[in-house]
């Protein structure tokens, strides 16, 4: 009887050591995963910080360019007055109600036609064998914009 109890005790010890080993391996893999996630998080934070810094620098350059382009002391009016009061303009509307947005439509049509001409020019240059960089220089567009125009035109 004593032998059976000793055998059972040894068997239970082996099984418990096996489960302890399994738990240790599981905890180790969880720690490794946690460390990997922390490193990925740190890398992502660094990338976002670099991106935000780049955006801030671009914003500052843009504001600086706007400040240089605007003359100091001269405020440019956004809307020009044509010499008539607001009441006269309301009462003397030259367009009927159903055509009030005609001027806006003409502007959008003109803009769309310019964009289509620009796209056609890019496609024509591409068909002639110009590289994307050359097309971008000739049309005063960015390389990415030229690539997108060509991709959209292919589809």
Automatic annotation (TrEMBL):
InterPro entries: DUF6115. The keyword Membrane applies. It comes from the Bacteria. Residues 64-99 are annotated as: Disordered. The chain crosses the membrane at residues 6-25. Keywords: Membrane, Transmembrane, Transmembrane helix. Pfam families: DUF6115 (PF19610). Residues 77-96 have a biased composition (Basic and acidic residues). This is Swarming motility protein SwrB. It comes from Metabacillus flavus.
């Amino acid at each position: 009887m004593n032998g059976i109890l000793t055998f059972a005790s040894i068997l239970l010890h082996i099984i418990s050591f096996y489960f302890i080993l399994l738990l240790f391996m599981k905890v180790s893999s969880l720690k490794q995963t946690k460390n990997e996630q922390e490193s990925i998080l740190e890398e992502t934070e660094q990338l976002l910080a670099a991106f935000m810094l780049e955006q801030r620098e671009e914003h500052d350059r843009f504001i600086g360019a706007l400040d240089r382009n605007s003359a100091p002391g001269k405020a440019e009016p956004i809307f020009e007055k044509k010499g008539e009061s607001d009441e006269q303009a309301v009462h003397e509307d030259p367009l009927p109600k159903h055509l009030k947005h005609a001027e806006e439509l003409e502007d959008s049509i003109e803009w769309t036609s310019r964009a289509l001409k620009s796209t056609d020019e890019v496609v024509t240059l591409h068909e002639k064998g110009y590289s994307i960089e050359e097309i971008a220089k000739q049309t005063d567009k960015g390389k990415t914009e030229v690539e997108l125009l060509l991709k959209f035109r292919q589809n």
